[in-house]
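SEQUENCE-TO-STRUCTURE ENTRY
===========================
Question of interest: how does this chain fold, as expressed in backbone structure tokens?
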Amino acid sequence: MKPRERFHSAVNHEEPDRVPLDYWTTPQAYENLRDHLSITAPETQEWGIMASWKTSEELLRRLNVDFRRVYMSPAAGFEPQPLPDGSIETEFKCGMKVIGGFYEVTYYPWAEFTEVEQIKEFEWIDPDDPSRLDGVREWAKHLHEETDYAVIGMVGGPWGTFEIVAHYMRGFDKFLIDLLRRQDLAEAMMEKSMELALEMNRVFLDEVGEYLDIVQVGDDLGHQDGLLISPRMYKNLVKPKHMKIYSDIHKRAPNVKVLYHSCGAVEPMIQDLIDVGVDILNPIQPLAKGMDSAELKRKYGDRLTFHGGIDLQVAMSAQGSIEDVRTAVDTRIDELAPGGGYILAPAHNIQPESTPQKILELYDYATKRGVYPLK
């Protein structure tokens, strides 16, 4: 079975020849693996989730990855500007800096706003800048017509409305207070984000939607032990905006599945995510509260495909063993894969402490262990 066929079989809750595999990783862990394998092939495929970098087709094939990605580009005329604290101003006008190997937000452009009018007048990026699509249609068409991989579209704008405000534009502390004390301001910030998301999706999907199998979106709603906001607040303030964004994706590209990313203990909101049009839920963080994979499969497995699930906190960390990696694969396949509806991947980006040997074991063992009929 070809990778794209394998994906569509799984997402339609049928059992393919084996469980599909996807690859999420930090650049550092990727480079360690690449050098371990002595791979010198050209790095032509954009691959970052939280940072922009490239990998090679040779490495993706070595790991039996069933997916390839299409990215919307930043505007060609954008020049990152240095800020006084040493961070760099991004296209979204927040400041970011590499700290401990990760890009962290150090400046929030909406942090001092006090009035709704300030949000409305804020000048954001231009979705219709044609340079955002330079070469994008050609690459998407190539992947769709000349390869057998499932194609994931990565829009170059906000994927949702909550995290972009909290994490990048306003700051978590202030935004969470806004949600309680200044809902007019919080609503204005989320509306602003929603409108940009709709426009970025329009530009991207009208150009390449016919060549995609998945559109990746997301809004972090959880942490290790619970939710960032209450289910009631989500239903009243965030859910209508998610409904508008994700239903518009389905309308513009009826052939695609919506893959939604939220870290943490999000089980209380899964039904709401199904309601707003989420087809695939990532990353199924297995050690987060309430994220027992067997229970998730029992409650939602007929309406949702699960993506991720391989523990990074213990099994793939420095303290985990090769046997722990195999156990993690066994558990997720046993609990999530029966009847299809599961794409095996790390529960977020593989960290630099995960050795190349562990990464190879994860993908090699999952390739063998995930063969249907499951043993």
Summary: The mean pLDDT is 96. The chain has 13 helices and 15 strands. The longest helix spans residues 183-208.
